[in-house]
Amino acid sequence: MKTPFRSGYRNLKFLSLALVAAPFFLSPALGQQNPDAAWKGKISKSAKDSQPYKVEYVKKAAANSPNIVWIILDDVGYGATSAFGGLIQTPHLDSLANQGLRYTNFHTAGICSPTRSALLTGRNHHSVGMGLFPHFYLSADYPGYNGHILPQKGTIAEVLHENGYSTYQLGKWHLTPDDESTDLGPFLRWPSGKGFDHNYGFLGGATDQYKPDLVEDNQHIKSDGRHLNELLADKAISYVKRQKELAPEKPFFIYYATGAGHAPHQVDKVWSDKYKGKFDEGWDVYREKVIANQKKLGVIPANAQLPPRDPYLKAWKDLPAEEKHLYARFMEVYAGFLEETDHEIGRFINYLKTSGQLENTAVFVMIGDNGGSKEGLEYGVTTKSIRFGADAITRDEYKKFILGEYDKIGTKEVASVANYPLGWAQATNTPFRLWKSDANAEGGTHNPLIVYYPKVVKEKGGIREQYSHLIDLFPTTLELTGVKQPEAIQGIQQDPLHGTSLAFSLNDKTAATRHTQQYYCIFGNRAIYKDGWKAAAAHHPTSLELFTYKGEAKPAIENNPEKEVWELYNLNEDFNELKDLAKKYPEKLKELKDLFDAEAAKYNIYPLIDIEHAAERYKLQPPPKAPVKTTASK
């Protein structure tokens, strides 16, 4: 028979163990506890002789601290939006840029999860275990690729939360390992485990825009059938409205990550039909128009030249009429998708303005987490079964199939992965070469950044050319908020940040670049930047080299990093990599290759985990067809 004492002892023992382990699983609701909250009064037997002392257990932000909004779009190249010279109209982003700053030399990691992990932690993506993705077949059991962000790599949300901010995550997350994605958790790598009070969006890399795999806080929920962009804007407004009512003096941080323009490209025809006929001239003419616009805006050098059309692509003029008709529709849908995204972001920004909060809000807009996507391949894609089953269908059979899909592109009736053809990826990446996941080229990693903060930024429509990388936004935010990076978060000692604050450049366009060195590596495609010089190597086989139709032989390409050819560019004189100087300056190339190896050792880049590795893991354990949910939708 258990005695009350023995039972109580066991409970007390369990509680003590829980308290020891607490830093590893405390949720944001249990966080934000003032580490300086020591009691400093005096106690005597008599209350008359005692001295009370009020402890502020929850740390408050400094008065008039700015609100912070980070907005990031998905799979959008440098030359897509009108804010940076593209032919897709984004009036709300244009307005932010025209009233703020355009950073023209900003860089991302080159693909989804690596970019997001580096952005939120302020650290290079391999150093936080996100060399690729948190999915089984796109990760590996090495320190740089395990897909698990550990507590020592605290996020900007955790830091701001501990300093009196409300924190909200909206939209795409893509940082939760597959086996932690059900409603049973664990939630350590959900937004709630990474410093966010509330979250509303999807955990994966992509979702249907009308039937999204939604999660709110710590459980899956059902959507009401409206477009995801509309739902995100509504939720962002509701978060701020509630905050304004309950704690008007408390600042907030919002991480607003749209699913657009990642596949599936889906939008109401009222948006896509606005572009009817606008792309009938094709991708070659698009590139010529955009580079002219970019020169007028001043977001590229006045003497810039277009790279040659990629060898995988055909000239638009040489395509059959039926293919031109189809491909133009793909781009009409993508353009409508992005303009609708801009409209919904604008609705949120307008709410901040009409509610009197925009003046004290620093808004950072990253137009893309990488360059335009090559995942639409040569002809475009509409359904996953065709895209991933290409080796079971001939080229002619696929062309016949895709030509019959015209009326389905962008619709909500089809559970699709609709994505435009490769030619539009190069076009929207104007003026750069290559595309998403090609971390060896600016087309994969060079994205626009808009900074809007009227309280601090005095210049309207300014251009900033300082070299920068998304890991810089974490320390920039800390400097603007007056918050110091903590030595520990919830008892966990923190590893150093890798970024450099951009605050120095906000009101000084002539200030020298402070971020002078940066590596890149996705699927083995790699590069190293140092003081304007860049060395880069494409890793073979690439995803395009692996893709073949039934009856077509895959190219015989040796997977050997030691034999891959490195290129060398002087980006100060050749910003879009048109002149390979490797043979002219072999010593500089060797210096940079050695530097890459040193960075690889420092940040866990090796071994190079590539697309072949992913293909083999995919055979072992393909991703589930639908997410496993463990609780009823609310």
Automatic annotation (TrEMBL):
Signal peptide positions (record): 1-31
UniProt feature coiled coil, ranges: none
Membrane-spanning ranges: none
Stored Gene3D superfamilies: 3.30.1120.10, Alkaline Phosphatase, subunit A (3.40.720.10)
Residue ranges occupied by any Sulfatase N-terminal domain in the UniProt entry: 66-483
Keyword Hydrolase part of the UniProt annotation: yes
UniProtKB keywords: Calcium, Hydrolase, Metal-binding, Signal
Protein name per Swiss-Prot or TrEMBL: Arylsulfatase
Family to which the UniProt record says this protein belongs: Belongs to the sulfatase family.
Pfam annotation, one family: Sulfatase
GO MF term set: hydrolase activity; metal ion binding
Highest taxon listed in the record's lineage: Bacteria
Listed PANTHER family: ARYLSULFATASE FAMILY MEMBER, BLL2667 PROTEIN
